Prior knowledge:
Blueprint: H1 2-6, H2 35-46
Amino acid sequence: AAEDAKKPVAISVEQPTVAKAVSPFLFEGDIFLSKKQAINILNEASKVTTDPKKRGRGRRSFDASPESKWPVTAPIKYRFHESL
C-alpha cells in the first residue's frame, strides 16, 4: 500500500497524455467539455447564491438533451487501482 501511494494515479487514460499547458482548462482535472457543456455549467454556477439566508436545497432537473447523455452503445472505461 505504501508503494502504491508513491505511484502517480491518473483519473482517466487520457490524463497522463494531456500537456501541462492544457490541464488548467480541463473540468475537474481530466474532462474535456464541449463549448455548450462549458456554457451550461457556467450558467448554472452563476445562479448559485452565496447568501446563507437564500440558500437551501436547489431544484434538480434532468437535462433531456441527447448531447448530454452518454451513448448507450459506448462502453464506460474504468480500471481498478493496483492496490485493490
